[in-house]
Each structure stands twice: as structure tokens, then as C-alpha cells.
Design a protein that fits this description.
Strands 9, 10, 11, 12, 13, 14 and 25 form a 7-stranded mixed sheet that branches. The protein has a 7-stranded antiparallel sheet with strand order 26-29-30-33-32-31-34. The protein has a 5-stranded mixed sheet with strand order 2-1-7-5-6, with helices on one face. The protein is built from 16 helices and 36 strands. It is 21% helix and 24% strand. The chain is globular, with a radius of gyration of 26 Å. It is an alpha/beta fold.
Length: 694
């Protein structure tokens, strides 16, 4: 059963060339340029093999080359299916237990790896790496930018929503994938920057060499300066069933849905109320996937309130003070159980709720991919870090850290003599700011003319509504990007609708009393399915909290494809007593209630911590209680952290277990990091090209 997204309210569906391949001998069809993993999921295949230790089903988790859970055999060799492109006629097989590698007694021709000297090497082509490369390219600095994906932009290419921040210098009000295109176009005009795509940085060594694998050839790069902008990786949670196929990192889900246009799920539950989880839930609804609930352990969501409000208005229940306690299923997720937490973060008996879903999105935070930077500093290299590799923050902040580090590098090379602009540093700090507390705002008293209504109640770095108002009718409190917007004076608004179109939080509506003061026209933004809001269709309108105010027919649908592509403006007439309360359109017909009540006690020690070696929380706790305080000793005793991913996924969870056991982390000896951070076939390191094999 093919699972493709054939229409989308924001993304264009490109025409792609079909590619035939086989899966365990069965003929299948994928698309040229997509990864093996995406082709398999699109063909309804969710299990990529079974683990040698316990026969557990294996599939993708991160879709970013970090966790090594998506291993398959392709043309007889083990590969990460999320990073390996499909080729015509490729024979792909599941790995059942330990793989049987092909016998090969031939002596290959080994080549000395090519060496390239460069003034600046940038690892990572996301918002930080691209912004830094632009600053370096403007100054004619010999720069090599490498990225392990087939296109530039990093996580920007996964984002269909409009960004916050400043219109003037961080493209606020523009969608993430469009920002990636803007930065790529800017970079393409700078001749001193060379770009290597599908090029993986694998290690940093004591002689100042950075190892890069491109086109299956190992290459040695010797940079004068190194900028690490390698982004972040997903964090994982410890709960029984946490490695079942269908338990994804939010980034993996966005990769499948927004980049590769694969309808990976039917119904999902999101765990984590930060911006990543809130936005992933919104993306799911745009792709036609049901969101049964979002769960957040804290008493309130940690992301922007406007993102949470968007979900509530669409019909997604948000359970704060709750956590996931288990996922169940045989070969993939079939249900997930959540429960309420008490003030001491313990699960409260009798509060279990179970939902029938096929996917659990884990969005509980990100960890810096900073190994290259730390190792380079250890070896005494002149290294810099930007974006999430330096500090987890929004992409708009990453652009500024990239610009700043780019200028620092240019100055260190003697090719920039000025100071870093003070405004850049100030904006970097502002864009990293956490959202402020929610405040109560009174609606305008007036009931005549036309006016914007601002449904945002939390200070976040955002000013598009003020920037696009041609009348200057909208200002930010204190004239600061963190201020809340307000209308300067009644009568200044002319009803141009720009502020409704541009708002990243979909938090501006326009109320127009000019034609009928008793039944004013309300204009509100909408980015989901056009067929749900055709003219004459009665639609459920909600208030700011998602409560349905009533059903009203659509009077008009307004588009501006050139300036604000993807956003529709929906106009309805309502009674004047609710006009200023209307904030959204309910999309999910009703909240999906829990289908089961979970009665029995859960076995949390059965949760898998080390995915590669299938080491449980119980095994790790036993070792800690036995006196282990060294991650290297723990690895020797349990094999936790010994797998292919190099403890990228399990290390944060192991450290959390130490803390849960009352151990101060200052007493724990961390793992010993090796220079090589990414798995590389020995033949590639030895200079053997895959094409040399007969």
C-alpha cells in the first residue's frame, strides 16, 4: 500500500522520476533521489529488520544518520537507509539478526586519500553554516562547506510554517523552506565558497585533518579555520516500547512528511510541548494526519503559546502535567498510554489513558552535535561553533550566530578589520530568549470601522505585523521586537489584511464593522485544507482556547499567492458580541477520546536505553546501584554505548538515570570520545572505491 502525499496546502508536489528496486525480492517503486528509508515507508514497510539480540523490530528513529536503527542491506552491503539514496535496480534486504556479508577474496586497488587545504571548512549547511558562508564569501575567503544531505538548508527544509523574529534581517514571516532557498541563492553568487553535498564529516584528528567521505571516497581536509555548524540530534525518552517502529523523533517525522512527502502515519500522539513538538503536530495536520493529543510533563507548554493555541483551535487536546508511560504493539506502535504526574513527577495511579495510534512523536528536546568542535579544540585547532552545535535555539538565532562567527573567522584571517556589529549581538541574544509569561490583554472597546485583533499574549521575538503595515498603525510595545503588538490609534487601519497574512502564529484577525455593525466581517488566517473552507461551507469557529463559538458560512476566501503563498484568509459574518473572540477554525471534527483504560502497573525497567545493544534501564540501574560511576566501565559491563551510533542516543538517558539514582554527575566519569564520530567502511578509509569491487 503506497503512502504518498499527493496534495498539500503549502508544499508543491513535484513530478519525480520513478525508480524500480526490490525489497527482499519483491519488486517495488520509489522515486529518484529519495532515500531508501522513505521509499520503504512510502510502500507501507515499517520494519526494516530484527535485532540479533532479542528479535525486536527495527526501523527509523532519527532519519538523520545519528542513531543507526535503520540499517538495511543494499546491493549486499550494510547501509543506513535514511542516508542512502535509492538507485535503479537496487536490491534492498532486511537485516535479520547479524548480517551475512559477501565473501570477497580479491585484493582491491588502494588509493591515497586526496588532500585538500582550505582557509575555512564549515561542517553543516543549515541556517548557521549558510549564514557564516555568506559572510566569508562576501570577503572572498576560500571556504569549503560540507553537508551530508542532498540539499542545503538543514532543518529549514523541513519547516512549512512562517518564522518568527525580525522581517528586516532574519526573514520573519517567511516559511523555513523558503528561507533555505533564499540563503542558498545568496551563497550561489559568491565564487569563493565551494559546496559539497552528500558529504559526511566523519572525524577530527590530532594532526589537524578533518575526514570527509564524499562519493564513497575518503578525503582529508586541512583547514586553517574550522566552523562546526552541524546542528542537533533528537533526545529520547525511557519508557517500555520506546524503540517500536512508529516511535519517531519529531525531526524524522518532518523529514518523511515535509521533505520526502511520505504519509508516514494515520494517527499520532506528540510527546513534548516545546516548539518542535507543537510545530510537528501542526505539520501533521497539514499533511492530513490526525493528532489525537499532545502531552507535556510540565504544568505548561514550553514553546510559544501561539503555536499551542494553533493546535487547540484546530481541535488537538493538550495534556499538561502528563507523560507517556508505554507504547504497545507487535511489529509497530498500535497504542500509547499516558498518565498524569504529581508534584514530585511520579505517575498518579488511576490516571492512565490509552490512545489507539500508529505513531508516537518524541519531541523532548535536542542535544548539540558538537563532537567535532570539542575534539578540534582538544587537538588545538582554531575551531568555532555556531547554531545548535553551539547552543540549542531557534533557527533565526542560528542565522545570527553564523553571521557573527563568520565575521570572527574573517577577522582572524586579517580580512575584516571592523568590530562585530553590536546590533547583531543584541539580536542574537533576543532571538535566543525564552518566551515570556502569558499576560491578559483587553480587546479594543470600539465597535466601528476596521481593526486588527491580536490573539497573542506572550512576549516572543516577532515583529512582522508591525513591519508590513503600510499605515504604521501597528507598533510593538516599547518599540522592541519582544514587545506585544498594538494598534496605535483607532481609525488608522484601512483593512489591507497584510498583518493577517504575515503573522507566523496565525494570531491576528481583522474585524470590519463598516458594512454591518451588528454582523461584522471577521477575516482570519488558515493554512490547512481548502475544501473545508469553500464559499458557503459552514465552518466551526473557535475562540483563543479552542472552544467552538458556533458554525458560520464562509463568505469569501482571499489569497495572495505571490506575496503570501500558502496562506488563505477566510471571511465570515458573525454576531458582534463574538466578533473579537473569533480566533481560529476547528479542523478535527472532534477530540479523539482515549479508547482504553490502562489498569496494570507498568514495568519501567524494561525500557530500552541503548538502542544499538538493547540494554534496558533495569540493567543500567543495577550497575549503578552496584557502584559503577564510570561510563566506560558501564559500557564494558553492559555494552551500553558500544553500538554503531557511538552512544549518541543513549548517553543523555544514562546520565539521567544516574541523576534519578541520586548520583551527582560530577562523580561520574564520562565516556572517552574517539576522533571518529561516524561509522565508515574500512575499505573507504583505506582508499578503496566501491566501484573497484568486482
Amino acid at each position: 500500500m503506497e503512502k504518498r502525499i499527493t496534495k498539500h496546502p503549502i508544499l508543491e508536489i513535484p513530478r519525480r522520476k520513478e525508480v524500480e528496486f526490490t525489497w527482499n525480492g519483491e519488486n517495488l517503486v520509489g522515486y529518484e533521489g529519495e532515500t531508501i528509508a522513505s521509499s520503504l515507508v512510502a510502500n507501507g514497510i515499517n520494519v526494516f529488520g530484527h535485532h540479533a539480540k532479542d528479535g525486536s523490530p527495527q526501523s527509523i528513529f532519527c532519519a538523520n544518520g545519528q542513531c543507526s536503527q535503520c540499517l538495511v542491506m543494499a546491493n549486499g552491503l550494510p547501509v543506513k537507509s535514511c542516508m542512502t539514496r535509492l538507485e535503479p535496480g537496487m536490491a534492498v534486504e532486511s537485516i535479520e539478526g547479524l548480517p551475512d556479508l559477501p565473501e570477497d577474496d580479491s585484493v582491491p586497488l588502494l588509493r591515497e586519500p586526496p588532500v585538500r587545504e582550505v582557509e575555512v571548512l564549515i561542517i553543516g549547511g543549515g541556517p548557521a553554516g549558510l549564514s557564516a558562508a555568506v559572510e566569508l564569501g562576501k570577503r572572498g575567503i576560500d571556504t569549503l562547506l560540507v553537508d551530508d544531505k542532498s540539499r542545503l538548508g538543514g532543518k529549514l527544509v523541513l519547516q512549512t510554517h512562517k518564522f518568527f523574529g525580525s522581517v528586516e534581517d532574519s526573514h520573519a514571516g517567511t516559511r523555513g523552506f523558503e528561507i533555505a532557498r533564499i540563503l542558498e541563492q545568496e551563497l550561489s553568487r559568491l565564487s569563493s565558497v565551494e559546496i559539497w553535498l552528500n558529504a559526511t564529516a566523519v572525524g577530527v584528528f590530532s594532526d589537524g585533518i578533518v575526514g570527509i567521505v564524499k562519493d564513497k571516497i575518503y578525503r582529508k581536509i586541512i583547514p586553517l579555520k574550522l566552523l562546526v555548524a552541524s546542528g542537533a540530534r533528537e533526545k529520547m525518552l525511557s519508557f517500555p516500547g520506546n524503540t517500536l517502529p512508529g516511535v519517531y523523533g519529531a525531526g524524522a517525522f518532518q523529514t518523511l512528511v515535509n521533505r520526502d512527502l511520505v504519509r508516514a502515519s494515520e494517527k499520532i500522539l506528540v510527546v513534548g510541548g516545546g516548539n518542535v513538538g507543537l510545530i510537528a503536530g501542526y505539520h501533521a495536520i497539514q499533511a492530513g494526519i490526525g493528532v489525537v493529543a499532545l502531552v507535556e510533563a510540565l504544568p505548561q507548554v514550553g514553546g510559544y503559546r501561539v503555536h499551542a493555541d494553533k493546535l487547540r483551535r484546530l481541535g488537538v487536546p493538550i495534556y499538561t502535567g502528563h507523560t507517556v508511560v508505554s507504547a504497545s504493539g507487535r511489529e509497530r506502535v498500535e497504542s500509547v498510554t499516558i498518565a498524569q504526574l504529581d508534584k514530585d513527577w511520579r505517575v498518579m495511579p488511576g490516571t492512565y489513558k490509552t490512545f489507539e495510534v500508529d505513531t508516537v512523536l518524541i519531541a523532548v528536546g535536542l542535544a548539540e552535535v558538537n563532537e567535532f568542535y570539542l575534539k578540534a579544540r582538544e587537538w588545538g585547532m582554531d575551531a568555532y561553533a555556531a547554531g545548535d552545535a553551539r547552543e540549542i535555539a531557534e533557527a533565526s538565532a542560528a542565522m545570527f550566530t553564523g553571521k557573527i562567527e563568520g565575521l570572527k573567522i574573517a577577522r582572524s584571517l586579517g580580512l575584516y578589520e571592523g568590530e562585530i556589529p553590536k546590533s547583531w549581538k543584541e539580536k542574537e541574544i533576543v532571538l535566543k530568549s525564552k518566551p515570556g509569561p502569558s499576560v491578559k490583554r483587553e480587546k479594543p472597546k470600539s465597535e466601528d470601522g476596521v481593526m486588527p485583533i491580536f490573539h497573542c499574549y506572550q512576549e516572543v521575538p516577532c515583529n512582522p505585523c508591525a513591519s508590513v503595515c503600510p499605515e504604521g498603525a501597528i507598533k510593538m510595545e516599547g518599540d522592541e521586537i519582544m514587545g506585544l503588538p498594538y494598534m496605535v490609534e483607532q481609525g488608522m487601519c484601512k483593512g489591507c489584511l497584510n498583518c493577517v497574512f504575515v503573522c507566523p502564529g496565525l494570531a491576528v484577525t481583522l474585524v470590519d464593522y463598516r458594512n454591518d455593525s451588528e454582523h461584522p466581517t471577521v477575516t482570519l488566517p488558515y493554512e490547512i485544507w481548502r475544501e473545508k473552507v469553500e464559499i458557503g461551507e459552514k465552518i466551526p469557529l473557535t475562540d483563543e482556547e479552542g472552544a467552538v463559538l458556533g458554525y458560520y458560512p464562509v463568505e469569501k476566501v482571499i489569497t495572495n499567492r505571490k506575496k503570501y503563498p500558502g496562506t488563505l484568509l477566510i471571511q465570515v459574518r458573525v454576531e458582534k458580541n463574538i466578533a473579537k473572540e473569533v480566533a481560529g477554525i476547528w479542523v478535527q471534527e472532534k477530540q479523539v477520546e482515549p479508547s482504553l483504560v490502562y489498569e496494570k502497573e507498568l514495568p519501567p525497567d524494561e525500557a530500552i536505553i541503548c538502542r544499538c545493544e538493547r540494554v534496558t534501564a533495569g540493567e543500567i540501574r543495577a550497575a549503578i546501584r552496584g557502584g559503577v560511576r564510570d561510563m566506560n566501565q558501564l559500557k564494558a559491563l553492559t555494552r551500553a554505548g558500544m553500538g554503531a551510533c557511538g552512544s549518541k542516543t543513549c548517553r543523555p538517558m544514562i546520565l539521567r538515570i544516574f541523576e534519578e539514582e541520586g548520583i551527582d554527575l560530577s562523580e561520574v566519569t564520562d565516556r572517552t570520545d574517539r576522533p571518529l564520530f561516524v561509522e565508515v567502511p574500512l575499505g573507504v578509509l583505506a582508499g578503496m572505491r566501491m566501484a573497484d569491487k568486482k
